[in-house]
Amino acid sequence: MQMDQPLYDDGGVTKWIGVPSLFVGLLAFWIAISTFCQYYLGLDFKYQMRGEAPSPFMAIVVSLGLGLWMSNVFFLRTRYYCDPGKNELLVWHRSIFGRSEKVLSLREAKELYVRRGKIKSGVFFDFGIRFSSGKAHMITRARDPEDLPIPAFAAATGLSVCGWGAVDDSRSGQDVPPGV
User: Fold this and answer.
1) Residues 81 and 63 in one domain
2) Which is nearest to 143 in space by CA: 112, 157, 122?
3) In Å, how far are 39, 117, 143, 170, 175 from 121, measured between CA atoms?
4) I need a surface site. Which of 4, 44, 77, 96 has the fewest CB within 10 A?
5) 143 in the same domain as 105
6) Are 149 and 81 part of one and the same domain?
7) Which residue range is the domain that position 121 belongs to?
8) 87 and 112 Cβ atoms separated by less than 8 Å
9) Where are the strands (E) in the chain, listed by range?
């Protein structure tokens, strides 16, 4: 499988969200370590809790969970690679807990789909692969249909893109007009 060029790379979380979340995560880790050292080891890290904590164990668990979740945002990234020889799509995912590779067989793939959705802040477009079994794998979501990697996936997989209005959106009740 050629791993030189990804078919699609989400680029990870934007830095103006990722860096502050990493700092909040590290602060939560520091609070957890400081609370543990203060209540269980008797060490002082110059972090004093006001009053008596009802459950320092729960404070440590919550701080560790918040720290893991917030710092994980910084490391999230997904890439898609296509192997036309095996007719497979490799989904490569990276997070703070490691990386995973998932292989999607395109033998049962029926078509690529674009679905329009609407929320209060605006319109978004979901792009993915629909299989003959009825399952679908969403690849990405974008606010502008020009940002969707439709040409790259259509060329690499040989699948056709269902019409912009072929998939109805039950929440918005509207279809995407051609050329939007």
Assistant:
1) no
2) 122
3) 45, 11, 10, 18, 18
4) 4
5) yes
6) yes
7) 76-157
8) no
9) 8-9, 77-83, 88-95, 98-105, 109-119, 122-131, 136-142
- pLDDT the model gives residue 48: 64
Locate 92 and state its tokens: 């490569």
Structural domain includes residue 109: yes
Domain stops at, among 52, 75, 98: 75
- Token pair 């890439």: residue: 79
pLDDT along the chain (180 residues), means of 10: 71 84 92 86 72 77 91 88 85 90 88 86 87 87 84 86 54 45
Instruction: Establish if 8 belongs to a structural domain.
Output: no
Instruction: With CA atoms as reference, report the closest residue to 82 among 115, 129, 146, 134.
Output: 129
What is this structure's pTM?
Answer: 0.69
Specify the 3-state DSSP secondary structure of 109: strand
Burial class (CB in 10 A: 0-12, 13-18, 19+), 106: buried
Tokens of 56: 């320092």
Q: Which two tokens stand for residue 29?
A: 């880790």
